[in-house]
Amino acid sequence: MTTAREYDAIVIGGGHNGLVNAAYLGKAGLNTLVLERRHLVGGATVTEELFPGYKYSVASYVVSLLRPEIIRDLQLPRHGLEILPLESTITPLPNGDYLGRWADHDQTRRDLYRHSPKDAEAYDDFGTLMYQLAWAVKPILGMIPPNPISPSIRDLRTMLKLGGHLRNLTETQFHALFKLMTMSSADFLDEWFESEVLKATMSASGIIGTFLGPRSPGTAYVLLHHYLGEIDGAFRAWGFAKGGNGMVAESIASAARSHSVEIRTEAAVDHVLTRNGRAVGVVLESGEEIRAKTIISGLDPKLTFLKLLEPNDLPDDFLDSIRKYRIRGSSGKVNLSLSELPDFTCLPGVGPHLRGAISVSPSVEYLERAYDDAKYGAFSRRPYLDVVIPSMIDPGMAPAGRHVMSIFVQYAPFHLKGGWTDTQREAFGDTVIDTLAEYAPNLKDVILHRQVMTPLDLQEEMGLTEGNIFHGDLSLNQLFFFRPTTAWSQYRTPVRNFYQCGSGTHPGGGVCGAPGRHAALEILKDLKR
Amino acid sequence: MSASSYDLTHEHEYHAIRSAAGLIDISPLYKYRICGSDAETLADRVVTRDITKLAVGQVCYTPWCDSDGKVRDDGTLHRLADSDFRLTSAEPTLLWLHENAEGLKVEIKEETEQVGALALQGPRSLNILNEITDGALAELRYFHVMQTQIEGISVHISRTGYTGDLGYEIWVDASDAVPLWDTIFRNGVKHGLAPAGLLALDIVRVEAGLLLIDVDYMPAHRAVIESRKSSPFELGLGWTVSLDKRNYVGRTALREEQSRPTEWEFRGLEIDWLSLEDAYAEVDLPPQIPGMTLRESVPVYAEEEQVGYATSRSWSPTVKKYLALAHLQAKYAKIGTELKIEITVEHQRRTAIARVAKTPFFNPARKRATFDVVRTP
Questions:
Q1: Fold classified for B11-207
Q2: Shortest CA distance to B322 belongs to which of B361, B348, B286?
C-alpha cells in the first residue's frame, strides 16, 4: 500500500523537536508530514487527563530553555503557549527546617543567612560569575556545531566566533569555565559554599537526567545550564506551561498546522525506505508506504540509526559510535491526584512555597547515597525528588479545590536488578511516597490517584531509549560537535536526504526546541530554500 | 528596609533636616565588629585609608576595593578601642572580611541585626541630644565617636551622617532601639524634630555631594561587565586612597592607576536655570522641577559629543538650584566647564546648560564646627 502523494518532508516523531522542525519546514513552504506513533503529539512533552478532571504533565513538567527565537518565529503565544512563573524552590530538611530560594532576592538572602551567613554572600558572587559564564557560553546554544576534524570554511568561521567569545573572558572566568567542564558539581560547589543543603540542592540540577552522582566529574557543567535559563529568564521563558507541558507541544503543532503541516497520530513508522544510499520514504507499522524527498527523525540516535535503518544502510564506524553512544535511563516520574494540599512540617499550611518547586535534596551525601543504590542496580531507597504542584499555578489542572502533583524521581536505573515488573513499579512508587511523606506527613491520606513511570515505562510509552530523558547523557563527550558523533553533529546523517532533529543532536535535551530548529535551517540550506 | 517617608510627602522631612532636625532609621546598614590583636591589621588590609593613623574614638569614611582597585562598597570605620572596630556597609561584607582575615588573630562578628542605628541630623541635633546626655557631647568633634548614655540607654554616638550637616549617628542594642527613638522624640518635638525617610535623605545627600551605591556607582563584585566598575579615583574618592601604607587589597592596581592621568571624574553639575527656562518657554510652560532625587542616568554632552552621564539629579530647596552628580571624562571635568545635560520637555528630548561645580553644593560651617560650651536653644 503506497500513499500516492509524495511529500517534500516527513518528520518521524511528533515530539516537541519534531514539531518545531516541521513548523519551520512548513513555514518555508515545504509540504510536510509529521508521523506520531501515539494518539497525541508531544512525545515526552504531553499533558494527559488520565483520571477525569486531573491533568498530568506525564513526563517533562517545566519549561526552562525553550528558545525565545522559536517562541517568536512560530508566534507560540498566539497558538496557546502561556508560561507561568515558578518562582521559588524550597528544600525541606529532616529536622523540620528548610532552605528557601525565592523570587525576592532579600528573602533568599535571609533564608540562606540562617544556614550560613557566608553562603548568603557567596551566593550572589557565584550568581554574578555564572551569569558572566552563561553569557559567554550562550551563543554556543545557537550555533550549528562546527566539524573540528575536517572543518569547512563555515566551520572555521564558527570556531573563530567561538574563540572570540571565550577570549572576552577574564582569566578568573576562564579558569572557572574550565573547572565547570571538568569537575564534579559537589567539588565545584565546595569551593563556594559550606551549607550542605544549599550545595545539595544546587548540585541536584547537575545530575538531573544523568546516570551520575553529584561527586561524578563532569556534572558541574550542567550547573551552568541552569543559569543559561536565568539569562533567558529575563524574557520569562522559565516556568510552567499553562495547561501542562503538553501545551508547549500543542502550541507548536498549532503553529505547524497554520503553515499547512499535516500531522498524523497513531501512525507508527516501522522503518525508513532507502534507495542507493538515499532516503526516499517511510513504511508505517501498518505497512503503508509514504514517499518524501526528505526524511527527518526526531527520535533518539539509537532508534534513529539502529531501528529505523538497516545496518547495511550505514558505515560500520558510524554504527559503532552509535552503539557506544551513552543513553542511560536514571529517572522516573510519579504523578498524583490529591484531595488536599500536602502539609509540610517545615512550612505548615498553604503558602507561596507550594507555588514553586520542592526539592528533596537535604545533603550531598543523601544524593550520592541515592546514586550508590542505582550504581548497583537498585532504585534509590531514599531518592532525590523534584516536586511541583501545577494546580497551584494553573487551577485548570485539577477540579476546583483538588490538586495534581508532579514528582520527578532520581535514581531509577533502567537496568534494575531482576528487571522492572509491576511489583517493582509499585515498590518504587511506595518508596517515593514514603520519602516525601517524611516531610509532608498528610501526603498518604490525600492521594486519590497515582501514576508511576519507571524508565521502562518512559521507553515503552514515550519512545525514550532506556527512559533517558535527554536522548543521551549530557556529558562533555556527547555535547556540541560530539553530539551524537563527531562527523555527524550537523543534523545530517550518512544516508542522504535523511536528517536527525531530536535531543540527541546539539544542543541537547530539555524542552528547548533548538535541535528541531537548527535541523530545519540546515535542511533548508541543503535544499537552497 | 527604611521608610520612604513618614508623611504622605517628604517635603517637611527634608526641611526638618536642614532647618531643625530629622531622625532617620539607618538600622538596615550592615554592621560588623572586628576585634582581636590583629583587628587593626585586618581593617588596614581591607580599606584604602591608613587605619594605623585612626585614633581610638575616631571614625573615618572609606571605600574598599577588590584586588583590581575597583570599589566594592563604601562606609564608615569606627575605632572604638585599640583593637575594636565597627565597620558599616551598604552591601553584605562578612564573607569578604573573612577571606581577608586568613591567618589573622581577629574575631569578625556581624551585628547588623543586633545593633540598631538612628541618624539624628540637622542644626538642632546637638540641642536635642544635649538635653538627654551629659554635656560631653558638645565636645565630640566631627568624625569622632563616644560611648555614653541616653536616659539610661547605653549608646555609641558618632558625629557622622549622610546629610552634609551637623548631625549624629547613634548606635544602640537592637532591643533598646525603639525606646531610644521614643526618648529622642519626646525631647525633640520642641526643637522641630521630624522623622525623615529615604526620599528626604536622597535630596540632602545630593546637596552634600555624597555618592550612593547602586545609583552613582555599581559595586565591583556585582558588575557583570568591566566598564561598570569604578576606581576610587573615578568616584572623586582619590583623597581616601593611601598609596604608601602597608599592602592592602587593590594597592598595586591603585598605584598603577594613580601613575597615569585619570580618565573619569565624578563631579557636581549645576543646571543653568535660564537655559532650563528657555527650553520650557518653547512650549509655553514654566520649568518643571522634580520634587525628589531622580536616579535614572542621563547623558551629558560637550557640544554634540557625549562626554559623561549624570546618575543623580535633584532640585535643592536650600541652595535653590537644580543639581546633578555626574561621571565626566576628565578633560571636561574642570570646575566651571560648560556642558549640556539631557532634559525631557513635554515628551521631547532637549538639553540644558550645566556647569561643572564643586561639591558639596551645600556645606554649612556647623557641620564641622567645634562647640566648647553647651548651647542653649
A1: Gyrase A; domain 2 (3.30.1360)
A2: B361
